[in-house]
Write a structure and sequence with these properties.
single chain, alpha+beta, three-stranded antiparallel beta sheet, 3 helices, 7 strands, rod-shaped
């Protein structure tokens, strides 16, 4: 008699059940990868804003305008684009922090979220997230410096 080789039906069912259990437990870890990637991108923008603010403050200190509340400008890397200041740091406007970071123009990688920005805070997000961005979802907020503190920069995680 010939010996048969292969799997029995019960062995196949057990393997399928084990794979199903693994899929159910592992899938949620990979479901929010887009939100995590967007949040990481915003963290990069936050770092760029901090760096730009520090460089602009250095230029303002050299020019002697770091203690003036507003109304002063310094020249950024592009000599045609002055950067508006508040206590030596870029102002929370497109002419302030928007001019200090590359890619924050209307044709760049980032867009200001004008529907939620106010006088002392500007919000930025990725171009494809402008419609869904809120003060608590998928934005970087940049709040003006005060006479005693540097600007406040925060990231709000992307939910989707």
């Amino acid at each position: 008699m010939k010996k048969q080789q292969g799997f029995t039906l019960i062995e196949l069912v057990v393997v399928i059940v084990i794979l199903g259990i693994l899929a159910v437990t592992a899938a949620p870890k990979f479901m929010n990868l887009q939100g995590d990637a967007r949040t990481a991108t915003l963290e990069g923008l936050k770092g760029a804003m901090k760096g730009a603010a520090g460089i602009v403050y250095g230029k303002a200190a050299i020019a002697g305008v770091e203690s003036i509340a507003s109304g002063k400008t310094v020249i950024g890397d592009d000599s045609t684009k002055p950067i508006t200041l508040v206590y030596g740091y870029p102002a929370a406007t497109s002419a302030g922090i928007g001019a200090a970071i590359v890619g924050a123009e209307s044709n760049g990688d980032w867009s200001p979220v004008t529907k939620i920005s106010n006088n002392d805070t500007i919000y930025y997000t990725m171009n494809n997230q402008v419609a869904t961005a809120t003060t608590t979802n998928c934005v970087v907020s940049y709040q003006n410096a005060t006479s005693t503190a540097a600007p406040t920069i925060k990231v709000e995680k992307c939910n989707k």
